[in-house]
Write a structure and sequence with these properties.
442 residues, alpha/beta, Aspartate Aminotransferase, domain 2, 2 domains, 15 helices, 16 strands, globular, binds pyridoxal-5'-phosphate
């Protein structure tokens, strides 16, 4: 009734969610288009995992192994198990015990299976946490700046308040976190979540040292917020310095842990896990956060594909709940790529080739898929097109990942899906482009 009345009186309505406009241009779409337009260009743009290691042909074997295990463990008929997998199912997931075993073995995180949710990737996990915990008016989510667009872009279109805090060689600026919290407190607002990617951050490739992880936990106690820890790259460690996830040292249950399996296995599996072992005070009663998240999930994606969950658990069963052996070759390959990339950068962007006050520098990521290049030049979108067309190499301007101003003199290179040959050619081309920028600046 009111719906019709509103149309009849000729009010102006937004044709779409107005917040969608806040996203501005679709920068990732722009990069995809550039890659399609210049197929001969070497692309360091996207952090896609290498398809060679997907092992997708084993999909059915893993599924069947999971079914067999369920038949034996549950003393059920095979048909009943298979039928159950085809049904609507628990919002929290059906492989939580297997994932708990994996988390304990590979990541030293002890989690009760009931505190775990199996989600449709980290993307859904981020949405569920915000939808469950955050008030759009009062609450603020601190994010690293620059950061993964999955969190920032979701928050923008869903109307959540974000506060950027600079991320550097040692992860998020902890003094900046504290100052931001105090600033919002003075305005009567609450920082409820601090989203961090402590391991081989996307986009910078930087990691948070152990000492900073502990201080962030202390801040969470002091200022009463949750750390939203996103781990998508933890196992891609190349220097043997393995830091425990913050969740593994989270005595006071301050961390909501997001574990993506998109890079660990393959993105099409669309699987991630949330570990949420917190209790929330609701109307004087303690309620498990995992139950509230499950309630939200019931009205967003209902449940995560049980078929994909079964495949993942089938692999975990075969591997005795550790993915280290499955990923050994892949990690060694990526480590080699990082080494080749660093060697090519040292060769083609050597300090002797650029004036001392115009030097090109880069970080040395201890793992992951990304590296940051610092240049003395402003790098625009037009530069990306020019570089792809004339120099046949594609990179991502770091500014694409900033919420605030920044990154206009930095590039992100992803080395996860390029060959040794492409790395050498690509970096020599990038060097030629940067020499062009140098000449143009004079
Ligand atoms: C920081 C970070 N988190 C999560 C993901 C993966 O998300 P999903 O599990 O939704 O594929 C990525 C992929 O690029 C990422 O960089």
């Amino acid at each position: 009734m009111s719906y019709n009345a509103a149309i009849n009186i000729g009010q102006d309505f937004n044709a779409i969610n107005p917040l969608l406009k806040e996203l501005g241009e679709d920068v990732m779409g722009f990069l995809n288009e550039i890659q399609l337009r210049y197929p001969a260009a070497v692309s360091f743009a996207s952090g896609r995992p290498n398809e060679q290691y997907f092992g997708l042909e084993e999909f059915a074997d893993h599924f069947n192994r999971f079914v067999e295990e369920e038949v034996v463990a549950g003393k059920k008929e095979r048909q009943a198990v298979i039928g159950g997998l085809g049904q609507y199912n628990r919002a929290k997931g059906v492989i939580n015990a297997a994932v708990a075993k994996y988390l304990e073995q590979d990541e030293q995180i002890k989690a009760n299976p009931e505190d775990i949710l199996i989600t449709v990737g980290t993307q859904e996990a981020v949405a569920l946490v915000a939808l469950t915990l955050c008030d759009r008016e009062q609450d603020v989510i601190i994010v690293e700046d620059p950061t993964y667009v999955g969190i920032t872009h979701f928050s923008i279109i869903a109307g959540y308040q974000l506060a950027p805090v600079q991320v550097g060689e040692n992860g998020i600026d902890l003094d900046g976190v504290e100052k931001t919290i105090i600033r919002y407190r003075e305005q009567g607002r609450k920082v409820k979540l601090v989203y961090v990617i402590p391991d081989y951050q996307n986009p910078t490739g930087n990691s948070m040292p152990g000492e900073n992880r502990r201080r962030l936990l202390q801040l969470a106690d002091q200022y009463d917020f949750y750390i939203l820890e996103d781990n998508a790259y933890g196992e891609f460690n190349y220097d043997g310095v393995e830091l425990l996830p913050i969740k593994a040292i989270d005595i006071n249950k301050r961390v909501i842990y997001l574990r993506s399996f998109a890079k660990t296995l393959y993105p099409a599996l669309r699987l991630a896990a949330i570990v949420a072992d917190q209790q929330i005070e609701l109307d004087g009663k303690a309620t498990a956060l995992s139950d509230l998240l499950a309630k939200t999930k019931g009205y967003t994606t209902v449940n995560t594909s049980t078929i994909n969950q079964a495949v993942f658990a089938g692999l975990l069963i075969r591997e005795n709940y550790s993915l280290k052996a499955v990923n050994r070759e892949k990690v060694a390959d990526l480590k080699q790529k990082r080494t080749q990339l660093l060697a090519a950068l040292s060769e083609y962007l050597h300090p002797d080739l650029f004036p001392a006050d115009q030097a090109i520098t880069w970080n040395i990521p201890g793992g992951g898929f990304f590296i940051t290049i610092h240049t003395p030049f402003h790098i625009t979108k037009e530069d990306v097109i020019h570089c792809a067309e004339k120099y046949q190499v594609i990179f991502t301007p770091m500014s694409f990942f900033y919420l605030g101003e920044g990154g206009d003199k930095e590039l992100r290179l992803a080395f996860s899906n390029v060959s040794a040959e492409q790395i050498k050619t690509g970096i020599s081309r990038l060097a030629a482009f940067l020499q062009f920028k140098l000449q143009a600046a004079h």
